[in-house]
Amino acid sequence: MSNLIEPKILKGFRDFLPEQEIPRKVLMEKLEEVFRLYGFVPIDTPVLEYSEILLRKSNGETEKQVYRFQDNGGRDIALRFDLTVPFARFVAEHKEELAMPFKRYHMAKVWRGEKPQAGRYREFIQCDFDTVGTDSAAADFEILSVMKDSLNALGVSGVTIHLSHRGIFNRFLEKLGIREKSEDILRTVDKLGKTGEEEVLRLLSEITGKPNALEIMEYIKGKDSFEETLTLMEEKSGGESPDSVRLKEIYSMLKNSGIEDSFILDPSITRGLDYYTGIVYETFLNDLPGIGSVCSGGRYDNLTGLYMKERLPGVGSSIGLDRLIAGLEELKLIKKTGSFTKAAIFCQDTNLMCEYQKIAAELRKNGISTEVFPEEKKMGQQYTWAEKKGIPFGILLSGNSLSLKNLKTRDTKEGCSLEEVIKALKEQD
């Protein structure tokens, strides 16, 4: 009987080949550039936390999705299901070391034991960016602006960011006399995009009664424009409030920045997690709305209150990178490649290996990623190797001159100097 173990992975988890991992890394690098333009700095936290840290402020649905277990020391621990709750613990633990307001980004894996489906996995990367230590409308606006710029940097122009305000919704529920049922109502409304109006109305009727359910449905449908929808929200929540004034301030900043067309005031956006207290938002690809939100978040003023007495306001957003990539692939906006290499130097004679390596060193000094094929094999095999990796150019050494071959078109420039090869490759950037 064979002792070999079958190579397999858990359902909802994935391996990433170079042609899959390279686009992820490139996208993350582009996101980092945007975050840094706004002054955000990187942090990291452990993948494992005490369960009480992660679950103290969660609902029953969240607990069902968490990978939770006892370690060898009998400690109750869990894998992080997002990056926001660990960030709250991080801020509480290191507050005296941080300059407030503190702006951080964190790109790392999280784990949720939910049912795998298209664009949704049990292990995935989140890209979070948050500002803590200020309750300013400017901080709310800046997060929205980063969201817009981040997606633009990834080549995604057709996006719509839906935003609302938890505070106004809670005032509305208070006016209806059902504020104590807000958590169940919020989570039900949050299912609107998945289950549809009829099912949400049915569920709301069970929670609040049919008349209140109809009032809620009218509220979350909104109107045609930002201003009209905000007027409706104010009317149904008892008039102008600090929360509606906050939305007006944010909208003014969006208009002054010339990006207001990418934003919709959508009262149905509530976000199911309990810790959101102010502005909330979700982002959808215009050409692929069915994949769901690819960037979500909101203001969570009371989150750090679980770990420290001092009130510390915060606002942030999270890009679901894997879901976004799934959408970009479907829209044919991801360029797949199996290598970062720009040019391959083919080996025609192992006795010339020192010369090949010298040429490669000069190319790299000029910022051209270069590989040297390490063995003397048939040229057909070396071409196949380069093409399989997606390397666009091949270099051949002939006497004292070089030949530069475009491996896609098969066009060849012969009798080139090293300087001419470097210039030609740089012109292809």
Automatic annotation (TrEMBL):
The keyword Secreted does not apply. Keywords: Aminoacyl-tRNA synthetase, ATP-binding, Cytoplasm, Ligase, Nucleotide-binding, Protein biosynthesis. L-histidine binds at residues 82-84, 112, 126, 130, 271, 275-276. Residues 27-374 form the Aminoacyl-transfer RNA synthetases class-II family profile domain. It is an enzyme of class 6 (ligase). One of its GO terms (biological process) is histidyl-tRNA aminoacylation. GO terms for molecular function: ATP binding; histidine-tRNA ligase activity. It is found in: Cytoplasm. PANTHER family: HISTIDINE--TRNA LIGASE, HISTIDYL-TRNA SYNTHETASE. This is Histidine--tRNA ligase. The lineage of its organism: Bacteria, Pseudomonadati, Spirochaetota, Spirochaetia, Spirochaetales.
